[in-house]
Automatic annotation (TrEMBL):
This is Leucine carboxyl methyltransferase 1. Methylates the carboxyl group of the C-terminal leucine residue of protein phosphatase 2A catalytic subunits to form alpha-leucine ester residues. Keywords: Methyltransferase, S-adenosyl-L-methionine, Transferase. It is an enzyme of class 2 (transferase).
Amino acid sequence: MFNRPDLGFAPGSQRQDSDAPIRQTDSDAAVARLSAAQKQYLNDPFVKYLVPRAQFQQPRPPLINIGTYVRTKGIDDLVEEWLSRAEKAGTQCQITGPHKEVIRSYIELDFPEITTKKAMSIKKSRELLQILGSADEVKLANGGAALHAPRYHLLAADLRGDPVDTLQEPLTTSSDISPLPILSPEYPTILLFECVLAYMTVEASSRLLRWFVDYFSANNGDEDAAKSKGPLGCIVYEMFGLNDSFGRVMLNNLRARNVSLPGAEPLTTIDSLISRFLDTGFHSARALTLKQIRRSYVESNELARISRLEFLDETEELDLVLAHYAISWGILIPGPADREIWSNWGLQEKDHSEEEHQF
C-alpha cells in the first residue's frame, strides 16, 4: 500500500522544504478521515492514534465527510473483494483488511517525515501494537524512519526515482527479518495509490507501474515460473478531468498552496485513466468517478444511513466535486489457471431506485 511519494533528500534541503505542502495534504486527509469516523460515516477505531491532538480537531463539513466516505467505500469494497477471492483460492495475499489470516504482508511507503511520525505513534500506542504483534516483534529500523512487524512493514522510499534503485532491494531481497522478500510475486498483491500518482509526472508513475508488472510477470521463458506468479491488482484514487472550469479553479487553489499536480493534469477522461494501466502491461482495467460510485455502487441501506447523519444542502457542488475524483483499478494475471477466479475482480453495481439517492 502506497500513500505519498518520498523524496529521499537530506533533512533541511531546499527540495525537501518545497514538498512540505504535499506532505501537508497527507495530514489534511488524515483529519478528514478522523472527522468522517467521528461523525459515524466510517468505522475506524485507529485513526485517532495517528492524528496529532485528535480530540481537538474540528469536524469537517458534510461535503468533505461524504467525499471521504465515498472514497473509502469504493476502495474498501475493492480490497474486500480481492481478499475474498484470495480466500476462495486458498492463498494468502499482500494487503490488509478484516481477513487477518489471509494476509501475508502489508507494506506501506511514505515520506520519511511521515513514516517517522507514524512509527513513533505505533510504538507509543498499546492498541496499535496489539494489532501488529508483541512489543519485541515490532521493531524500528533506518534510524526510526522504518518499522517492521511480522505482517506489517513501514518504509521510506523515493517513488519518483527509478524503482530499480529505490524499491528493488528493500522489497525483493531477503533480509534478517525473513528468508523470503517482503514483497513476493508468488502471492496475490494489491498496489494502492491514494493521491500519490497525481504528484509525479506521468512518465514517473508509468515507470513505477511497469516495474511492478515486470516483477510479477517475469518468468525468463520458464512456463512453470509463470504459473507460480500471483495476480497483481492496482487501485488508484486521484483527481482527473481538470481541464474544465471547475478543474482550473481546483488547480489554482492548489497552486496558491504551492501544490502542483503534474500527474493529474494530462489525465482528462475516464479512458485516459484506463489507458495508463493497459499501456503499462496490466491485462484489464476499469475506472469510475466518485459521483458514479455514490449513485450506483453503494448499497441501499448505506444510502439511507448516510442520509441521516448530516444535513447536506450543497448537492450540486458535491456532485461537481465527486465528478473530478476517480477510483480506477487494473489487474495482471500471469497464470492462466487464475483467470477464472480473478478476471472479473472489481466493484459491483447495486440495484436501487433513484429515490434512494438522498445524500
